[in-house]
Amino acid sequence: MHLIYHTNRLDLKILRPGQEHLVLDFYERNRSFLEPLEPARSDKFYTPDYQRASLSYEYNSFIKFSYLRFWIFLHDDPSAPIGTVCFSNFLKGAFCSCMVGYKLDQHACHNGYMYETLALLVPLVCREYHIHRIEAMVLPDNKSSIHLLQKLGFEKEGYLRSFALINGQWKDHLLYTFLSQTP
Prior knowledge:
183 residues; alpha+beta; eight-stranded mixed sheet; 5 helices; 30% helix; globular
């Protein structure tokens, strides 16, 4: 895997410690937009020290092939990320699977950026990490995300009751799965 990939409109980058100001800016810009959709975060999350430590952990995990987070930048504006995609919970052996999660800046939604990103990264992760199955969990009322997953070839496999603690409440999720055609 490389640290940077390019699509027609986007640069996908793995960030390193020292770039925490980019991550912090993204989360601060989108705090009120993202917080209702994510696990509760302490105020510590919104500090340079926390984000620097997080980038250090993520980069070291990338080196070990155990975690993968790309930050999404527009070609025309490389100064601010507009989103992120994370592949986590890698299982090897007989499972060859992982999970994917993603989020976009509130002003970047509905422009096809996440489709463009995942259309590149999903097959790439399957090939480079020898992954057969990628799972995505989505809130049942998140129609945009459901449409995105279906367009990418993910199929609905199940309903996960009380799956994740989102903004202080246990929320049901739908399980969508992408199966790689490569052995």
